[in-house]
Design goal:
The protein is mainly beta. Helix content is 0%, strand content 47%. The strands form two sheets. Strands 2, 4, 5, 6, 9, 10 and 11 form a seven-stranded mixed β-sheet that branches. The chain has a four-stranded antiparallel β-sheet with strand order 1-3-8-7, with no helix packed on it. The chain has strands spanning 3-7, 10-12, 18-25, 33-39, 46-51, 58-60, 68-73, 78-83, 92-99, 115-116, 120-124.
């Protein structure tokens, strides 16, 4: 099982920003498609952003488009999710996950991902 560790969550006011980190141990993140997902209390887990292996193409959910950027730092073996203009409805536990290297592209469907981190909590509130 691939190990992922998320960090960077916290309490932020509406309109604020956060940068979430997803760090990998014992494997190279760049070799996999990586997705960020979130799950709010009582709701299903949903895709937020993802980045494909290789060309690094990205995909963002409509709910965060224009407010969220996913990127990766190969040297630090970390994938980031920069979120701006945060809204109370962004409140959720955020997870990163890997999609098999057999696939060229990332997708925003949680069921397509195999290994998950423990999550980091984001609360947007005044």
């Amino acid at each position: 099982q691939l190990q992922l560790t998320e960090s960077g969550g916290g309490l932020v006011q509406p309109g604020g920003s956060l940068r979430l980190s997803c760090a990998a141990s014992k494997f190279t993140l760049n070799a996999y498609n990586i997705g960020w997902f979130r799950q709010a209390p009582g709701k299903e887990r949903e895709g937020v952003s993802c980045i494909s292996k290789g060309d690094g193409s990205t995909n963002n959910a409509d709910t965060v488009k224009g407010r969220s950027t996913i990127s990766r730092d190969k040297a630090k073996n970390t994938v980031y999710l920069q979120m701006n203009s945060l809204k109370p409805e962004d409140t959720a536990d955020y997870y990163c996950a890997t999609r098999s290297a057999l696939f060229r592209q990332c997708v925003l469907s949680p069921g397509s991902y195999a290994d998950w981190g423990q999550g980091t909590q984001v609360t947007v509130s005044s």
